[in-house]
Amino acid sequence: MSDKILSSSLEDYLECVYNRINLNGSVKAIEISKELSVSRASVTEALNKLAQKKYINYGRYEMISITDLGIEKAKEIINKHNVIQSFFENILGIEKDEAARVACGIEHIITENILQKLSAFNNFCSSEPELIEKFRQKG
Amino acid sequence: MSDKILSSSLEDYLECVYNRINLNGSVKAIEISKELSVSRASVTEALNKLAQKKYINYGRYEMISITDLGIEKAKEIINKHNVIQSFFENILGIEKDEAARVACGIEHIITENILQKLSAFNNFCSSEPELIEKFRQKG
DNA sequence: TAAATTTGTTATGCAAGGCTAACATTTTGG
DNA sequence: CCAAAATGTTAGCCTTGCATAACAAATTTA
C-alpha cells in the first residue's frame, strides 16, 4: 500500500470514475459497480482506497469527486488505453470490442517508454496509409 | 481452480520449468525460486498446483518433469512471448531487457487472434526493412 | 410525508499468491 | 560414512480483491 502506487484493479476504478465524471458531471457507486461488473461492496472498498491515496475525494455517503492528482493519473491510463487500442484496431485490424478488452489489460503493464514508441509508430503508420493497405492484403 | 486453466503466475512457473528442462535436461525448485524471485515455499506450492492440473509430474522430494500437455502449453506461452518481444525490439526499437520484461506481462493477456495478427505484422515488416528504417529516422 | 425502493456500508468469508520460520530430506565434502 | 550444508516441505500468517448478507441512509413515489 505504498501510498501512491495503484494496482491494476484500482486503476480500473479510477479510470471509470474519471470517465463518468467527464460524461455526466458526477458518478455514483452503483454505476461503477455495473460498469466493472463487481459488487457495490467492492466499489465502496476501492473508493476508500483511492481516497486514502488522494486520487479522489470521498467519505461515507458523500459525492465522489476526483482530485488533480487523480485527473492526471486517469489521463495517463486512458492515453495508454487509447494508444494500444488504436494500434490493434487501425494497424492490426482487430475488431473494436476485442481491441478494447485486451488494451484494458495491457494498459496496466506497458511502460511509458514503450507507449511513447508505440504512439509514434501509430502516427508513422497514419502518415503512410498505403503501408497498412499492403499489410491487410497479405495477412 | 477449474482444472486446466492457468493463472498468469502459474504460466510463469510452467514457462520456467520448460525452459530449464530444455536447457539443462532437468530443473530444481531452487532454480525456479531464483529465476522468478520467489521463496522456495512458493515454488513448492506452485509445482503442486501444476502437477494437480497435469502439466508436470511431481511428488514430494521428487524430480520435476513436464508432461506432453505441459510442453504444448509452455510452447504456446513462449511463442506469445517471442512474438511480442520481437515486435518491441525489432519494430519499435526497444532495448532487449525492457522488451522481455513487458512481453512477460502481456503474454498472459493477449488473445490468440491478436497474437496471430501481430505475428503476421512482424513478418510483413521483416519483408520491408526500409519501412523500419524510415520509422527509426522519424521517431 | 411516510412507506417502499434504491443505493451505500459494514461484517464476514473465500481464494490466490506471496512470505517467514521451523522442520524434513538430500546432497556434499571431510 | 557421517556431519554440515543445501534444498524441499509444512504451518501459519498477510494482502488483495472479490463475494454475500444484513443493516443504514437516501431517494422516490403513492
Please report the distance between the alpha carbons of the first and last residues of chain A: 45 Å
Oligomer: homodimer
Helical percentage of chain A: over 70%
| Coarse shape of chain A | elongated
Structural class of chain A: mainly alpha
Q: For the largest sheet of chain A, list the strands in their spatial order.
A: 1-2
- The count of domains of chain A is 2
The CATH superfamily name of the largest domain in chain A is Iron dependent repressor, metal binding and dimerisation domain
CATH architecture of the largest domain in chain A: Orthogonal Bundle
CATH topology of the largest domain in chain A: Diphtheria Toxin Repressor, domain 2
Radius of gyration of chain A: 17 Å
The level-1 CATH class of the largest domain in chain A: Mainly Alpha
Task: Estimate the strand proportion of chain A.
Answer: under 5%
* Helix-strand string of chain A: HHHEEHHHH
- Mean pLDDT of chain A, as a whole number? 95
The largest β sheet of chain A comes out as: 2 strands, antiparallel
Low-pLDDT residue intervals, each spanning 5 or more residues of chain A: none
Query: Biggest interface in this structure?
Result: A-B, 26 and 26 residues
Work out the number of β strands of chain A.
2
Number of helices of chain A: 7
